[in-house]
Specification:
single chain, mainly alpha, 2 strands
Length: about 210
Amino acid sequence: MTGILASFTHGGSRLPWVSVALAAASLVLFAVFGGQPEAFIYDRELVANGEFWRLATGHFAHLDHQHLVMNAGALIALGFLYETSPHGGVRRLVWGCFVFSAGLISCALFFGDPKTQFYCGLSAILNALFVVTMIAMWRETRSRLWLFGLFLLAAKTGYEAMFGSVFSSGLEWPPHVGAHLTGIAAGILLVVFDLSEKTRRRLSRSYAGAARTE
């Protein structure tokens, strides 16, 4: 248990400034424009008419304060773990969890789900961040607690697919299960890419070391 608790600080005092900044962006957007801001939510018809920025800003817009607080809180909590982890970091958080997963989720919405007219919120991206964080923490601690976290995410997503929202039943728009599944898929792909890159680097070092000894 001590090892698990110690893993939350990763042996240092770094703070997840990028995660806090990204959460703050959502807070500012909500404070200035309110819930469901017409200029920033994903609106399929307007995206098709050239308002492509909505593919990015839709992830930071929220329906109401409940939606915002849940997502911003989850982002800061997961960001604290992943951004400061030796198996995570700022670069992976920004380029992987936000640029890659947000792009994949937006493409899935636009090209794969023509019936969805509107969408907003960080929850699908948070699913990607959750997956990579649980794996990063498991690699760091080898505690099954983090693998159990993955099971809980799968159970939650399955429940929502069959019965509706677990935590946000009062929201005007129901959770988009397809976007959530795409976020999970993005997280799995990021883990696979990371492990493949590490394997490639180890092989390169092995070949280089063997060449020097010949």
